[in-house]
Amino acid sequence: MLTSEERQIYRRHLQLPEIGEAGQEKLKNARVLVVGAGGLGCPILQYLAAAGVGTLGIVDADKVDRSNLQRQILYGPADLGQLKVEAAARAIRRINPLVHTEVHSCRARLGNVRELVSKYDVVVDGSDNFPTRYLLNDACVSLNRPLVSGAIYKFEGQVSVFNYQGGPTYRCLFPQPPSAQEAPNCDATGVLGVLPGLVGTAQATETLKVILGLGEVLSGRLWMFDALTFQTRTLKFARRPEQAAIHLDTADTRDYADLCGAGMHTISVAELQEQLESGQPPFLLDVREPHEFAAGHLSGATSLPLSSLEKGVATLPKQHPVVVYCRSGRRSQQAVERLQNEFGFANLINLDGGILAWEESEEAVVKG
Description:
The chain is 36% helix and 17% strand. By secondary structure, the chain is of the alpha/beta class. 41% of the residues are buried.
């Protein structure tokens, strides 16, 4: 039963015969897991909270950075340096104090994804990398949960709903993950600030339709949007039984390699600072793009962008420890994997959290 307060708040929903009080009670009783509290996650959380979804789980390990404010509309300057999950939960309480939030300050990984997904009715993917997308898909197949997926790149976005009532899965549309070289990287290329709002709102719309059993859900259809032309098109795709059968227990775990960090040594900012102050500091390798390096880098670092890594391999030491870093630690992880797998390096160490973690620890970036 809805309370008198809830009837007032959700009156516009109750006036829709397709929703009514019975539909609003479905929303109130629903449990939705939103993975990623960034550009996509912010509008998803905002509108699901306003709509009255009873419980929202939020998964994210990052802290609010100044560069987030251009598009992540739940945060402001006062939230800088704070965990996104905590800042997002506070924002949701301001929007709708009747909504319960459950914060998970972590990344979705092979070791925790089954437990995370099992607690919720619907999973909404607001992540920004392919390993997480495949991991969430396989978990949703294992646990029979619908997956509302969205992705953005520069000026383009797309949305679909996977594993819905026996429909196609993410692997039916994208059977194989792209290579590290092929995968687009918004962290390096940028994105139009309003685009995540448009795509995230579409994901929130599909989530409400899934909960309510309303309309025609984007199952077996990929909605694509181009902000520069404001054109949309919808691609239909079919369920592929051999791909739809893949789940957590049968998938190739190499699809999640970036999340597992298998065979990779890491170093914290504090540990690196100690080594730099010692008599034998490591070789520092910056794999960001040249314009990022020029804007600020660690003192003494060598620039070798991930996009042209093979061109400078011969200049890297193979005996002396090499600490590889980027903005947040993701590109450097890819660089370490490529250098290890393709060129036989065994002396590489990934800086956990990248230069963002370094800046947060102390203002020690030397301007180029």
